[in-house]
């Protein structure tokens, strides 16, 4: 018998064992649980009623008296209760870490980067990032890069499209992803992507990053982790594809590190240089993980937020009009392509509109922790040790118990008090997480999004095309609109 035959028999036996184990688990769960939530999951009824899994979760959480449900087949407690979110992210923070199961899911992609670790490794990276992002010099440096990318790249591109006058359509999501990638390369690495000596076009690396994100996230939907671990061991199916894309991503990360070392980093403002200056023995694997974490946060989250914003704005012309009035009042038609940092601070309605957009479409739709020891959430839900607990910002934005009966409406005014932007508790609005893990790049991301939005809205009308299809999201670590965001860009009508 050849080695191939032995491998095939082993694989067949392993798959059969896994499927048999899943069947036993399924039958046991059906016997031990008769709740409506479990029945809904087992019957997969969400696929017939909802276009996105997150909408199904939002529906179930709205139906729950406590705003919390338990998906027995997945062993996952899901909550949209602000008191529970505060308990997990602040009150009992140490009992709800990311956990080893989560780190295993994303370990091949994120490694030991800040989004995938706990304990001392997380504290060190957070301290370094906090010192960098809290620096006035770094914020000024970042704003200069964002303004430059808008003035020299984004606005000329949109102008060329608007001036065609032939009904040309552009994929705004793709435009924002390219813009965010260029911007994060300069802010985080101090590099223009044109200086990177890569063996293939950047678009192929971007596609590899998207695929790796999608396949890594898919691991978390498996009812039995043994399945994806076995596929990885045998190097077959989706795990083989994930391995291939991560090899490509590593080539990009290695080139970024090489270029940064070539240029030197002793006096640079970029974030990577600050981390590299603190690492002993030139640990390239550790630095690689930091590069990937920066790319994930800086490209995907910002592009997702911008795409969702213009999707909503295209449906609410009254909001676009109110924004233009505020922008004109602050800038007083000074003719500048990009507003100043100080002018941005005066635009409270624009700020409110951004928050309102991310309330409905958060870039990260849900986030999971793992309970170390048996615990009881504030709403009375018991959580057993070593189980997954998920808080769901996407569903929370659609809870009338939190936002009132108009929770499904895009209404920026809900964030204003006397015309001044007034934030809500982060535990009620955990779009940037909250507590000790609150997003350190929050202000940087908001500045970038706000600068782009003000620059585009003041100069163009954006009409997102309906396309005759429901809005769907691609499975991944951040919310990406399936099929892109086709839109027409034209000059505002006077």
Automatic annotation (TrEMBL):
CDD domains: CYP86A. Its cofactor is heme. Keywords: Heme, Iron, Membrane, Metal-binding, Oxidoreductase, Transmembrane, Transmembrane helix. Pfam families: p450. GO terms for molecular function: heme binding; iron ion binding; monooxygenase activity; oxidoreductase activity, acting on paired donors, with incorporation or reduction of molecular oxygen. InterPro entries: Cyt_P450, Cyt_P450_E_grp-I, Cyt_P450_sf. Heme binds at residue 439. This is (wild Malaysian banana) hypothetical protein. It comes from Musa acuminata subsp. malaccensis (Wild banana). The lineage of its organism: Eukaryota, Viridiplantae, Streptophyta, Embryophyta, Tracheophyta.
